Request: fold
Amino acid sequence: MGLFTDLRDSISRAVDRMFSDAEPKRIGIYGPPNAGKTTLANRIARDWTGDAVGPESHIPHETRRARRKENVEIERDGKSVRIDIVDTPGVTTKVDYKEFLEHDMEKDDAVRRSREATEGVAEAMHWLREDVDGVIYVLDSTEDPFTQVNTMLIGIIESQDLPVLIFANKTDLDDSNVKRIANAFPQHETVPLSALEGNNMDEVYGKIAEYFG
Amino acid sequence: MPEATPGDSRNGVQIDLISGARMEGLTSMEKIRLILDGVRDGNIVVLEEGLAPDEESKLIEVTMTEISPDEFNGIEIETYPQTGGSSQGILGRIMGKESTKKLTVIGPANQIETLHKDENLISALVSRK
Reply:
């Protein structure tokens, strides 16, 4: 009996080790511009590694390159999940440099920013088709979720059979409406949070472990 | 009634209604080229049967590479929402039941503005170049 128990424990440890040594899953953080993707990526990275992923800004298209934070180990209920976070540029079908001029930017800077933004969106789409194992789709819960970009992106993610969690961000704001997002995409789980304030992060990490672990 | 020539579109907005049959034999890149060439000429392209999700992804990617300041700002695209979403999922695809057929309207971002959209109606305001 003792031998059998030892053998079982030994196999269990080997299996645990095998899974803990497995390549971390690459989780892409997607969504429209200004939904709070980088704020969320930074919140997750700071909570579990102490480092940030990239700068945050209220000006759209602050993130113009996909940024990866590797080996983020999230512990939940005695288990640990290792993921690579990929913070991606906000997806859109149009970029007009004139929009940046409204943020006190010189024309040259605005044109450069718009060019980098278009490259970033193309890169994000490429990552989605080729290089991510799961998706966190971040939406600003004060905004209408029934947009063409959201519908298309969710459709693209579904067609890839990727696990997806929808995060209704900015719940700290008065206009936040999480129900509207849940109604827009009833086929997926919607998790409310404020990445900026760190509200409801326990549930966020629980769901990440459940979906991507 | 005489057929209008492409040159006449300077006085109005050209609308290309493209049938599913016309798109059927084309590769993904040929479809995207057909759409973007039309849109870049200032036309409104209406697809009877829309694009597959993978093609939509490539359309966004190629559109981004073609955006040029003061020349082309990208596209506005509208489709009816797909009712049922992914509930069919893998099984639906295996059984061949999944349909990507959805009427799709695509136009230059600086010329088309969606006024209203629901499951049965897309209402858009189209302006001349």
